[in-house]
Design brief:
Helices cover 4% and strands 46% of the residues. Strands 1, 2, 3, 4, 5, 34, 35, 36, 37, 38, 39 and 40 form a twelve-stranded antiparallel beta sheet that branches. Strands 43, 44, 46, 47 and 48 form a five-stranded antiparallel beta sheet that branches. The chain is built from three helices and 55 strands. By secondary structure, it is mainly β.
Length: 842
């Protein structure tokens, strides 16, 4: 496999920096694994690139050639001619010239109150599109003067020019028009081929069939214009982009169109798409298929999606697939007669405009097209049993108007439809429109797309406003920033006769040559990798495709401060130089032990050396490290009984459930080595020295302690974490943490000094509510079989201690014996009931 392009077919994993923490014991190393794009972009690149598939490769070299005066800030267009390259520059209109192989740029001429945005070459002469109050087409004479060929009335801007033989086509603006100039005529005249409602036609291109493609501003339309035998233009809107400007067009000979949009509001710093953070695989372009998959039909592309049913039960039952229908049809026989044209026309493919001849009948070519369409649909019907839905045929979009007819009888002229919602997505895009009209979005970023060029199977995308030249390998779906220039924009691009790619930039204006070979040498330095503790570095594994004549050198350095520029690290330690080896495939890792001293931080540096048309491609890098076993960490320990839910309303008067006797113990713990931890729980009574066991070998971070098995009292709980499961004997570490003091109280308060006296219909009960550990929370009574208890306040009017005297006075009781039940409760919810049989005298 040869690496002859920017984006190689390396069957290796992508490279992205992701810290992978293995769920392995501390005695096993961890690894910094680089296997996708996202984190790689944090590293430092010098003459290297990172693709969206994660490959690290050498970049293409660039060289600024010639000096452009500071007052010139933009290069609008470039044109190579006989060892020279001409520059249309501004904002003060200048035509400049550079001799290829030389070092200087010379000013050819300057224009007052005019501008030059477009250049072309015809028969060894430079053609200049001059924009101004009266625009014109001129040729550059041998004495470096401009000789006007033709003036362009009512044209303010000449944005682009394309030659077809001796015919010069012009994309112009304000008003927008596509013009044609026959340069071989004795007196060249201007012919208007197309006028549009958009303000400007910005870009222009042509295919091998001499069909013109024009990109507009305002509505982002792409027109395809066919010149018929009568020399008349037949325009058709090939695509209506959601972005407002089509600034770049590239058309292959077969009519495949690449279009780039340039909405300035969407050209913002930074990446639009999130870099790929996980390997996604890559296109297998080595598989040979017996049959290419069928293209999707336009009908299917344009069908609206069915609305989702509110209730699955309302959806109709799916019909079984029909049996194939064997139609008894002679596909070679003519299937279209004159009296059938109207019916058969409904079967024409959606979106194609068919213009009828003067008699309202199809032409011979249209008959052939209709026959082929019917043939295709009948063949599909034989396979599927279904004939495709009918589609209306458009016969004319500019009907003639009979000026003598009454106004009400005149056909309406087409009304310009409202523009679709602009800005369907952020950023700008490159679209591919194939010869059948199908549109695919190939690229989208927060840049303006100013020029497109196809080079050896890759698409070069010149952008602004960060001066990036992107490369897109369409078939492999691989892209990368080929180079980033000092300038903000790259509005011009041309190719010399010997294949040199030249770029014209803006802000500042420069003429830049893009090398057709890889840089001879480049480096990629990883971001600083943090092991979080001083660690021993192990083996570095690297998978790479290293063609003959290329090499990769790997170096590492380590330190204990995050920024190696602020304090010394160890010097770079060269590990080894990897070269091409027939015995090693690009799927096998090359390995070497890292010699950098132990430290917390580490970096690696890859030095790639190329050989003209070949570059190494780094597929993945892994660096193992071993952290010493560190003790676990326990951040907190909490212990408490569950809080009972308060009762409200009538439920508050009912007897509550007894409080839980299971104390909830919870803790937060971690291990710096991410070892598996086991926990031991113990308790110690107040004043004691010995720890008593609660539980051992707990692998969760919570435990319910049944406290009925211990006496009431105050305790401290200790949680000990151990990493013994992940370390050999003698290397395990433990850590302990104590809880705040906790109270175990499962005993209800008691009633002391109870006494009563009942005379003259009044009953008085006195007593003291006492609890050993918890404050008394309430005292209440109930008489006989009363449904509810009546609360009583203590003598000092506040329940705030473990001893609370109280008095109950009851009046209006019938003489005789009564049962009075006293209820006393502590703050834990422990409750005691005690009943008295009392007698009330008259």
């Amino acid at each position: 496999m040869k690496l002859t392009h920017l984006l190689p077919l390396a069957a290796v994993a992508a490279v992205v920096l992701t810290l992978v923490v293995a769920e392995s014991p501390a005695v096993q190393p961890k690894r910094f694994t680089h296997s996708s794009e996202a984190e790689l972009l944090e590293g430092e690149k010098r003459d290297t690139i990172v693709t969206n598939l994660g490959d690290v490769m050498l970049a293409r070299g660039t060289e600024v050639i010639g000096e452009i005066p500071e007052e010139t800030s933009v290069v609008y267009d470039l044109q190579a001619l006989d060892g020279l390259v001409y520059l249309a520059a501004g904002p003060e209109a200048r035509l400049m010239r550079h001799t290829l192989g030389g070092e200087q740029l010379e000013a050819v001429l300057e224009l007052d109150a005019e501008q030059v945005f477009a250049l072309a070459v015809l028969d060894g002469e430079l053609l200049v599109g001059v924009s101004g109050a009266t625009s014109r087409i001129a040729r550059l004479t041998e004495d470096d003067a401009l000789e006007t060929i033709v003036e362009l009335d009512d044209v303010n801007y000449v944005w682009d020019m394309v030659l077809d033989g001796q015919t010069l086509y012009l994309a112009t603006g304000t008003p927008a028009a596509l013009l044609a100039v026959e340069l071989d005529a004795d007196e060249p005249a201007v012919r208007t081929l197309l006028e549009t409602e958009q303000a400007n036609l910005l870009s222009l291109a042509m295919d091998d069939a001499s069909r013109l493609y024009v990109g507009t501003d305002t509505d982002g339309l792409i027109y395809r214009v066919t010149i018929n035998e009568a020399g008349e233009a037949e325009p058709f809107v090939l695509y209506d982009a959601p972005e407002p400007e089509i600034a770049a067009l590239l058309v292959r000979g077969d009519g495949t169109v690449f279009a780039g949009t340039a909405d300035a509001e969407q050209a913002r710093p930074g990446r639009l798409e999130t870099p790929v953070d996980e390997p996604e695989g890559r296109i297998d372009d080595e598989v040979e298929l017996d049959e290419q998959p069928a293209e999707p039909e336009p009908d299917q592309e344009l069908e609206p999606e069915a609305e989702e049913a509110d209730d699955p039960a309302d959806e109709p039952e799916p019909e079984p697939d029909p049996e194939p229908v064997e139609a008894d049809v002679d596909l070679d026989a003519p299937v279209i007669e004159d009296d059938e044209i109207e019916d058969l026309a409904r079967l024409i493919e959606r979106g194609r405009v068919v213009r009828l001849d003067e008699d309202g009948r199809p032409t011979a070519e249209q008959r052939d097209a209709l026959r082929e369409e019917i043939r295709r649909r009948l063949e599909r019907a034989r396979r599927t049993g279904e004939l495709e839905a009918e589609v209306a045929m458009v016969v004319d979009d500019e009907p003639e108007i009979d000026e003598d007819a009454p106004e009400a009888a005149r056909p309406e002229r087409p009304v310009r439809r409202p523009s679709p919602a602009r800005r369907a997505q952020p950023g700008n895009a490159v679209y591919r429109i194939d010869s059948e009209g199908f549109v695919t979005e190939l690229f989208r970023e927060s840049v303006m797309i100013l020029r497109l060029y196809e080079d050896n199977g890759r698409l070069l995308i010149a952008t602004g406003n960060e001066g990036e030249l992107w490369a897109l390998a369409i078939d492999r779906q691989e892209r990368a920033v080929l180079t980033t220039l000092e300038a903000d924009q790259i509005p011009a691009l041309t190719v010399t006769a010997d294949g040199q790619i030249l770029l014209g930039t803006a802000n500042p204006a420069k003429l830049v040559r893009l090398d057709d070979r890889f840089a001879q040498e480049g480096t990629y330095t990883s971001d600083v990798l943090d092991a979080e503790q001083v660690s021993l570095w192990g083996t570095l594994l690297m998978r790479a495709e290293i063609p003959a004549g290329t090499s990769v050198t790997v170096e590492t350095r380590s330190g204990n401060v995050r920024d190696p520029e602020h304090a010394p690290w160890t010097p770079w330690q060269e590990l080894t130089v990897f070269e091409h080896d027939e015995a090693i495939t690009d799927l096998e890792p090359r390995q070497v032990g890292v010699e950098s001293p132990p430290g917390r931080f580490v970096q690696y540096r890859l030095t790639l050396r190329g050989e003209g048309n070949a570059s190494p491609a780094i597929g993945s890098v892994e660096l193992a490290y071993l952290m010493p076993n560190l003790p676990p960490k326990i951040e907190s320990v909490r212990a408490a009984y569950p809080t009972p839910r308060p009762r409200r309303g009538a439920a508050a008067q009912q007897d509550e459930e007894p409080p839980s006797t299971e104390m909830e113990i919870e803790w937060e713990a971690s291990d710096p080595n991410e070892d598996q931890l086991l926990y031991t729980l113990e308790f110690r009574p107040a004043g004691a020295r010995r720890w008593l066991p609660i539980a051992d070998n707990v692998d969760e971070k919570s435990y319910e302690w049944e406290t009925r098995r211990v006496p009431d009292g105050r305790y401290v709980i200790r949680v000990t974490a151990s990493d013994r499961l992940s370390n050999p004997p003698g290397m395990a570490k433990t850590t302990s943490r104590l809880s705040d003091p906790v109270l175990v109280d499962n005993t209800a308060p008691r009633l002391e000094d109870l006494d009563w006296a009942g005379e003259a219909g009044v009953l008085r009960i006195t007593g003291v509510a006492v609890d050993r550990f918890s404050p008394v929370a309430s005292v209440a009574y109930a008489v006989n079989d009363a449904e509810h208890f009546t609360p009583v306040l203590p003598v000092d009017m506040i329940f705030d201690s473990t001893r609370e005297p109280f008095e109950v006075t009851l009046a209006g009781l019938e003489p005789g014996e009564h049962v009075v039940t006293l209820r006393v409760r502590d703050t834990r919810g422990n409750t005691r009931y005690e009943s008295l049989i009392v007698e009330v005298r008259r």
